[in-house]
Amino acid sequence: QVQLVESGGGLVQAGDSLRLSCAVNGRFGGFIYVGWFRQAPGKEREFVPVVSWTDDTTQYVDSVKGRFTISRDNAKSTVYLQMNSLRPEDTAVYYCVAADGVRQVLSASGFRPRYWGQGTQVTVSS
């Protein structure tokens, strides 16, 4: 059983920074990927970034490139999302996601999560 537990959400002002954490617990097999999706009110869930646990390859949605950074700490089994220069349009519930098994295409349209966390709210005021 895989568990993903997010923390670090909150209310910030535009231009501020925030770091989300995702504690990853459980047993995986094959290729392993951990990332983040987000869902704003009235919108569909959106891919944000993903990192390959195997070779550290990353991919980001265009709207966060240069502002968000995904990283991992193997010793702590934790994935981080450092979010800088936050904008009101970044307001959403952020979900930690993971997948394992076969090799996946790391892209906004290609990545398919298998496991989901409960989500953490990020609100950016203007």
| Amino-to-carboxy terminus distance | 40 Å
* H/E topology pattern: EEEEEEEEEEE
Strand content: over 45%
Helix content: under 10%
User: Can you give the mean pLDDT?
Assistant: 94
Shape: globular
What is the gyration radius calculated from CA atoms? 14 Å
Structural category is: mainly beta
Which residue ranges are poorly predicted, with pLDDT under 50 across at least 5 consecutive positions? none
Q: Quick one: how many beta strands?
A: 11
Oligomer: single chain
User: How many separate helices?
Assistant: 0
Largest sheet: 7 strands, mixed
Defining traits:
single chain, 11 strands, 4-stranded antiparallel β-sheet
Notes on the protein architecture:
- With 126 residues, the protein is mainly β.
- The protein is built from no helices and eleven strands.
- The strands form two sheets. Strands 2, 4, 5, 6, 9, 10 and 11 form a seven-stranded mixed β-sheet that branches. A four-stranded antiparallel β-sheet has the order 1-3-8-7, with no helix packed on it.
- A hairpin with a 4-residue loop joins β7 (68-73) and β8.
- The N and C termini lie far apart (40 Å).
- The model has no long low-confidence stretch (mean pLDDT 94).
